[in-house]
């Protein structure tokens, strides 16, 4: 699973974190330093587990709280359309056999 910013979403550094600017709607969304850590982790590594691990290493927070915070932010980022979650397609199976249509 990978996460990317949707086309038309831009990141601007602020004194307290970042602002995500949605060019299409004209709205912006502020993320504090914790949100920035989660977002950058998701964009760089793509896995919620990595974001949870980074959160517990950087802040005094237990894994369950971190898991809840990461899930909430992912849900919010995806529901607002700021971030796109891409699930890799299943690989096409390779068979050593083929089905051919014929007439009898």
Keywords summarizing the entry:
three-stranded antiparallel beta sheet; 5 strands; 3 helices; single chain; 104 residues; alpha+beta; Outer Surface Protein A, domain 3
How are the secondary structure elements laid out?
Layout: E1 2-5, E2 9-13, E3 17-22, E4 27-32, H1 33-45, H2 48-58, H3 63-79, E5 83-86
Antiparallel strand pairs: 1-5, 2-3, 3-4
How would you portray this structure in words?
It contains three helices and five strands; from the N terminus they run ββββαααβ. It is an alpha+beta fold. It has a single domain (2-86), classed as Outer Surface Protein A, domain 3 (Alpha-Beta Complex), CATH 3.90.930. α1 runs antiparallel to α2 and α2 (48-58) packs across α3 (63-79). The longest helix is centred in the last third of the chain and has 17 residues, at 63-79. The mean pLDDT is 88.
């Amino acid at each position: 699973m990978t996460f990317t910013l949707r086309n038309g979403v831009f990141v601007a550094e602020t004194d307290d974190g970042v602002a995500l600017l949605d060019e299409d709607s004209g709205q912006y969304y502020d993320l504090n330093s914790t949100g920035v850590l989660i977002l950058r982790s998701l964009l760089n590594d793509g896995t919620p587990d990595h974001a949870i691990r980074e959160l517990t290493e950087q802040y005094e927070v237990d894994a369950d709280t971190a898991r809840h915070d990461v899930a909430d932010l992912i849900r919010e980022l995806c529901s607002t359309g700021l971030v796109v979650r891409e699930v890799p397609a299943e690989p096409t199976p390779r068979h050593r056999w083929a089905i051919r249509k014929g007439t009898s």
